[in-house]
Each structure stands twice: as C-alpha cells, then as structure tokens.
Amino acid sequence: MKQVCLLCERTSFDNNLYCQEVYCQAEKSPTILGYGKWLGDIEIVRPVVVLRSSVLYEASHQKERVFLKVAHVGSENTERLKREAEFLKTVRVSNERNTFLPNWRPPYANATVSAQTEAYGRAMLGEHLFYYYLSDFFAGESLRDALTKNPQMWVNHIGWLVMRLASSVALLQSKGVLHFGITPDSLLVHFEDNPSVPTVYLLDLGIASTPQNINNDWYSFMVPPAYTSPEIMQPHLQKPSYATDVYGLGLILYEMLVGVPAYPFKLKSDEEVYQAVLKNHRINMNRTADVRAIAELAVRMVDTQVANRPQNAAQVVQELLKLFGEVPTAKKSRWPSLNTILIIVISLLTVAFLITFFVTLNQLNII
C-alpha cells in the first residue's frame, strides 16, 4: 500500500508521507491499494485514477475484470459514493444504460441486478470500513494522461469527445442530477481505429446531487479549485444550476484547445487558485485564428456570468452537432477479435497435439 497526496501528488510507499509546502497536509493523504491486495473478495489489479473523493481500480471479481470505485475515508466521501452508486443502479435496473456512463454491477457475489440489491458494498481493511461499488471494465486512459501525451488533439477529436461527454452530462441533467465536478481526471478516453473516433467513459458523477439537496451535499474539497465555477464559490451572487456543468464542460473544451488548464494549479495552494478563478485570470484563448467557431464556444461556456453560457448540456450537444456533425460510428473489422483468434489457435494446437499423441502411441503398439 502507498499514500498519494491529493494536492501535490507526492507518493510514499511506507505510509510516512510528508510535504514541505505549508498548504499541503500530506500526512492526511489516503492509502492506495496496490497489486494483489484484497478488499473482501475483490482482488486489486492496479489503481487507474485517484480523485479527491475516491479512487478507481482495475480489479478482479469472481474471475471477471471489473472496475472498483472506493471512497476515501470520511463521511462526505462515503455519502457521495453512495449517491453515485444508487443513481447508477437505478439506471441499470431501468435499462436506461448510457454507454458513456459506468454500467453498475452488484457489489457482492451471487447478487442479482434488481431494485432490492444494495447499490454499494462495504469491506473492512485494517481499522477502516471502506465503501465501494463495482462496474463493468472500460479499456481506456484518463483524459489527463491522454493530454499529457498529446496536449492539443485534432480538433475533430476534441469536438467529438466533448460532444459525447456532454451527452452523458445531459442524461444526468434529464434525471435532475447535478455533477459540479467535471475534470480531465473524471473521464477515461479510448480511440477506435476505423475510423479514429474517441469514446468516453465518465467514471465519476461529481457531487451526484439534486438542486434541492445541493446545499447539504456540496463540499469544496471534492473538486479541484481550477475546475470549480465562480457561482459555486460565491452562491450569494449567482445561483448554481445546470449551466454550472456547462462551465465544467467548457473548461475541458478550453483545456484541449489551448493545451494547458485554463487555470494553472500545479504547486499552488487551493486559495491561490480560487482567487485566480474569481478574478478570471485564465490562460488566453489562442485558437481563434484557426478554429474560431469552436474557440468562441469554449469562451462562452466558461463565461463567469451564468446567463451568458448555454444553459444546459443538451444545448452544448446541439451547438457541437452544428460544428462537427454526428460522431462517426466505428466500422466492424473483417478480422475476428483477438479472443477469437486465440481460441482458434489454442484449438488447432490441441488438435495437433492429440494427433501427434495418438500417432506416437500407435507406433509404439506396432513396435
């Protein structure tokens, strides 16, 4: 097990993490499970993404490859994960699955997909009780990692990716659910080959609350300040709404266009970043010369005035459709899948072995 600081990202493998930055309480960082560790009957393969409220693992459950989402210790984190799991279970049970959202799975062996099944599981590890839920595995990498490799993607990839992300957020909004925590770490991306099209997986549903309950459910540490909207910081001036998630979508679009976060945050305290957001000290938009229309949309989406933005995620999808058209569908390969090829090869090798065995046995009997 190791500790990973949620602010400065320092890591310790001996559970003795210390940070020299005065704003960073590294000693309070969560413990991250490593390969081969067990949480109940679930075996950890690797951590995929570490968020401020939880960690997403690739894991093995009942010999199946799955995602395991574990809340960090603390009542706010566990309650947030419970809300997320309950929502995803409701979507799964009602057969309203969105391919860009986690496909919820029962948390315990032999449990079935039903309204009566618990949405989340519990397991003791050391002296702590951890809350978790399971979902289908998705082969991809975090958008943060993808942007590290390629800070400025092809503009069509940017448009299609944000369109699919906005479609997922639109589903949440159609159910009256607010996210309020969209970051490059909260989604995974995968690029199909034929044609080259991005697929997204929204691995985290943010605060996963409703407009009526947001005052009780919101807590600031869940979202990095660089991805927190001005109206959340100062709700007495402007009321947070569905347009708040448009701001989050806009920050993703903005960052992919300029190649860096709109509000730089590395080695800065939360308070420094909060002030930069409130004063609108963001990186200048430098793409108006080559992709003016999409750049202007990004600027509108991150406007500090709520009324100047598109008012919901569905409107964002419609604007992106006008600019990029429908996302192309991946063509099915003429070749069989890798698993099918492996099965065929193993079958042929087995047949060859049996033929050789019986021929050899027959020759020995003749002798």
Say which CATH homologous superfamily of the largest domain is assigned: Transferase(Phosphotransferase) domain 1
Strand-pairing-aware structural class: alpha+beta
Please estimate the helix content.
25-40%
Fold-level CATH name of the largest domain: Transferase(Phosphotransferase), domain 1
Q: Give the mean pLDDT.
A: 86
- Indicate the proportion of strand residues: 15-25%
Q: How many structural domains does the protein architecture include?
A: 2
- Radius of gyration using CA atoms only: 24 Å
CATH architecture of the largest domain: Orthogonal Bundle
Counted beta strands: 13
Low-confidence stretches: none
Keywords:
3-stranded antiparallel β-sheet; transmembrane; 367 residues; 36% helix; transmembrane helix; Phosphorylase Kinase, domain 1; alpha+beta; 7-stranded antiparallel β-sheet; single chain; Serine/threonine protein kinase; 10 helices; Transferase(Phosphotransferase), domain 1
